[in-house]
Queue: 2 jobs
Job 1
Amino acid sequence: MFIDIPSGLEAALIDLPLPTWEVDGPFLAESTLERYRAELKATPRFEETAAMLRNALTGEGGGYAVLRLGNLAEALGTGDRFRRLATAFAAEVAVPFSPFPRWPLWKDIGVKVDKDPGKSSGIGYNAFHMDLVNATLPPDYTTLLCLRPDPLGGGPSILSDAHAAVARLSQDTRALLAETAYHYGTFFDLFGVGEECKPFSILDGSDPGKGFVRFTAKMLERSELGQPHADAAEELAEELVRGQVSFMLQPGDYLIVNQRRFLHGREALHGGQESVPVADRRLLLQLFLRARADDGSSE
Ligand SMILES: O=C(O)CCC(=O)C(=O)O
Ligand SMILES: [Fe+2]
């Protein structure tokens, strides 16, 4: 699931004249998609690298990938030129978009010591979840570009195959997860992700491996659930942990998660974040992707 960029391609990408991107409402503009695609197609071994990436995300047993862009980050810095390249790779998977009006396409995830530690940009354990879990149409992919890991060495990413975890549960537990009895979070002013889904079912009754496992372990502490449903959700959370993989994102690593297959989270950052200057703390950029209607991954 870790994909290196062939050195010939890396060299060509460093010199690639990608223009500033444009947006059309919440989506990356079609003209930008076409321009980026045309530039990338002309670079050596690009098609095979993009195919490998798509296969890691949607092929048999796949569901996430880490594209290693560290050398490019080192060569280009982590500003606009690097971000355009990451955007161009993302666009090879699906259409980049921002569900948050007035926010840029890429959203900063820094470290805030006084925030709820279990939430985005908090310092604690960020439990297994899908992003925008309470939208009728969550992003098909969530992506995280690591600009700076925790300088104190904490915060490995965690990933787990949601359908595999569900398959290990009893029939009774799965039946509870298929009931429309769960809710989480707030919902306002979002683009491109449908309506608020409240309450929702975690399993949607489609065939195993199809559809979302609409889950966030954060609901265990932050939503009031009836006891049988809370217990079923707890069992799923435990199975996700049992099946997890974890790794530390390095500078320039680009993690892409197929939200129809895998759930993600992050271990706690190392203690002592208060003593790290804000400018040196862990920094990720987040971007969401919408699958194209014709690519089969949204079936
Ligand atoms: O900090 C991380 O590595 C993950 C953050 C995350 O999952 C989120 O903000 O949605
Ligand atoms: Fe997330």
Job 2
Amino acid sequence: MKYTFLLYPHQNVRYRQSLRQLAEQELLMTLRALGHACEVKPTEMGGAPALAFEAENLTERDMRMLSQMANVYVMFAHEAGGLAALERLHPDYIGEDLPALLKYKGKTNEMFTDTMLTMALVSSGFIDMHDSDLTVCDPMAGRGTTLMLALRRGYNGVGIEIGKADVKEACDYMTRYLEFHRIKHKKTESSLTVKGKAGGRETKFVFSDTPEHYKAGDTRSLRMILGDTRDMLALLKAKSVHLMVTDIPYGVQKGTAGKQDSIGGTLKAALPAWHDALKPGGVLAMSFNTYVTKREQLEQMCALAGFEIVETGNLEHWVEQAINRDVILARRG
Ligand SMILES: C[S@@+](CC[C@H](N)C(=O)[O-])C[C@H]1O[C@@H](n2cnc3c(N)ncnc32)[C@H](O)[C@@H]1O
């Protein structure tokens, strides 16, 4: 059967090219993980960007995963009478506006982060896991773009962020969002100890898509931790997260990687803890600015921490004058 998937356009014309390249890799990796060894070809539908492929009839399992792809707007199958739009089998758990509303300087493009989320999931051992059982961690969470995307899909999120203002902004936003939409939830705060001292603060939200589900205990959670990612194993349990998705500091804004420490230094100290916090079969997807961090060096650090590097196509792409971005995927064996 022939399929054509229409992609979301992006307002910025130059960045659109970058997203197209990532969309192709997202689809290719997803199809491969689902057992379809087909080619994916960039094409157009009425002038709009699309991707085409030929595969055996897509199953319900395939559709459930393909429906989660970040870049796909509408999926079409070529049938005798013409094109048939395929129904999405994975509706948003919470409003699609959750990751999109909050705008701030330094925010990562949410479609890009969502693409990394797909890539991490399809490279992991957890592609068939029920949404409510999946936990996504962003170990350098900023104001929580990755976590909001995970919640939108119906997974659980846990973030660690060293910037007090970022954590406050993310938690205030989540509170406003849940209250505004009258989503039944519970918010709790607790202090965490690191090496015997008060070392972190956790804000936890437990909520549900419907009041009935909330009552029945069918809930999702977001935990936002103010702390240093190098202390991850004091802040999170070992083998407790399925996927880790993060944008490491791009080096364009000063003071993000700790006072005396370089980005490389922070990562070298953090990666062994990130590895141990992942469950076996879990995957870390990490984006970086190639003008600041070298892929080879990062791959070496990941390998030293015990990760296996996942082979991918070319994920390096232009973002803006000061940022040329690339992505590394690394698996805990
Ligand atoms: C590129 S930003 C992430 C942006 C995020 N994806 C978003 O859209 O909001 C990297 C983040 O890493 C945080 N960070 C740097 N060093 C850290 C550390 N040692 N522990 C925790 N967070 C750290 C920075 O404060 C910054 O918010």
